[in-house]
Design goal:
cell inner membrane, disordered N terminus, transport, ABC transporter involved in vitamin B12 uptake, BtuC, transmembrane helix, single chain, 16 helices, about 400 residues, cell membrane, mainly alpha, transmembrane, 2 domains
């Protein structure tokens, strides 16, 4: 029989974690946003100089947006996976498999655009639920589960296609070719920034009402200014060329949805609690199994969405495509402030990290540097990002 003292200790443990650790962790993540954007702008200026003015041309930025779309969509989901302390190593294989499914549905079965989209998303969701079953219910570490999927699904794609590239139904190309008009693009981007700023104001008021001391500048001013600077740059690019590409619109929708769930719902607060102190979260009554299931199911939908963007962008479905994508996504998330140990991270920071990673890759391609240098860059950036995360925690991995 549980003693009164034990119950009291458990309640104190859970309450203490929620009141003291969680707000501080979220505030630190938010304050990383402005320096990260400054670093991104500096990298862009350097690449503009090194490429002789090609990098910031409207044509190249439009091409870059297509590259970023897949990484950014997956990074937004990876943040939700990593905050409670999990990881997903199957990203490249599952996205390539989703692209193969989309191509087969449109070509072999002659399905139109919308049925193809539904089937591809359903396939991704099925893979996500498969991961959830093994991680949440069978208690197998996510590292092992997703590593197994990386190998098995990559092999399955090769078997289904006989290791041959499949061409999709031309209808699906609208996903990569369509763009909003320049004026509508500006309206959408301004609405996105305004919604972000208003949500920051709402959070600041909620913190004040709860008695948590926080300055208006730290909670509202710096994040709104940071995102505003970046949004203004995207507005200028969109207005000077074809408008906002549809993949970018999809990224904005995913970022808004994931960011909302993470920061303004009980679901998001539970994810932070699980990653920050799993034992305290369990004692506080959080259903860790259900939270993990929902996270991996959402990640599964993003597999399908990224697969659709991939097959539309390439106009083909190579079964061996996107090798190493998982490393780029994890590196982008860590650069954006998401901790490999869980408990910390923001969607906005991770997406900016994805833009930074793809900018480096794009810039090196424009300079005709071999792909080996891109791999070296990703590895070094990931190493220093993890080191910075450990230093900010004041300890070593596992402390």
């Amino acid at each position: 029989m549980t003693s009164t003292k034990t119950v009291t200790d458990r309640g104190a443990l859970a309450k203490g974690f929620q009141l003291r650790e969680l707000p501080a962790a979220m505030s630190q993540d938010r304050l990383r946003l402005l320096p990260l954007i400054i670093v991104l702008l500096i990298v862009w200026m350097v690449l503009q100089y090194l490429t002789g003015g090609l990098f910031l041309s409207a044509r190249n930025l439009t091409n870059l947006s297509g590259q970023v779309a897949i990484t950014a969509v997956l990074t937004a989901g990876a943040v939700l996976v990593m905050i409670p302390g999990y990881i997903d190593l199957s990203l490249g294989a599952t996205v390539a498999a989703a692209a193969v499914v989309a191509a087969i549905a449109g070509t072999n079965y002659e399905l139109s655009l919308w049925p193809t989209i539904v089937i591809t998303l359903a396939f991704g969701l099925l893979i996500g639920l498969w991961h959830a079953f093994w991680v949440a219910w069978m208690k197998v570490p996510s590292f092992i589960v997703t590593l197994g999927s990386l190998l098995a699904i990559r092999g399955l794609s090769l078997v289904i296609t006989n290791a041959e590239t499949i061409s999709p139904n031309p209808d699906i190309l609208v996903i990569s070719d369509a763009s909003l008009s320049p004026m509508l693009s500006i309206v959408v981007l301004f609405a996105f920034w305004l919604a972000f700023a208003l949500l920051q104001v709402r959070e600041w008021r909620a913190r004040q009402a709860a008695g948590i001391r926080s300055s208006f500048g730290a909670v509202v001013g710096l994040p709104a200014a940071s995102v505003g600077i970046f949004t203004l740059g995207v507005m200028i690019m969109a207005a000077s060329y074809r408008g906002l590409p549809l993949p970018v619109v999809l990224v904005l929708a995913v970022v808004a949805l994931a960011g909302w769930f993470l920061r303004f719902t009980a679901f998001g607060r539970r994810l932070y609690a699980i990653g920050g102190n799993r034992q305290a979260a369990l004692l506080a009554g959080i259903n860790i199994r259900m939270q993990a299931s929902l996270v991996f199911a959402f990640m599964g939908l993003l597999y399908g969405l990224a697969g659709l963007v991939l097959v539309a962008r390439l106009d083909s479905a190579p079964p061996g495509a996107m090798q190493g994508l998982e490393l780029n996504v994890i590196a982008a998330a860590v650069i954006g402030g998401t901790s490999l140990m869980g408990g910390r991270g923001t969607v906005a920071g991770a997406v900016i990290g994805a833009i930074l990673m793809e900018s480096l890759s794009n810039g090196m391609s424009l300079m005709n540097l071999p792909s080996a240098y891109q791999s070296i860059t990703v590895g070094l950036v990931l190493l220093f990002a993890v080191y910075a995360d450990l230093r900010s925690r004041g300890g070593r991995f596992g402390d």
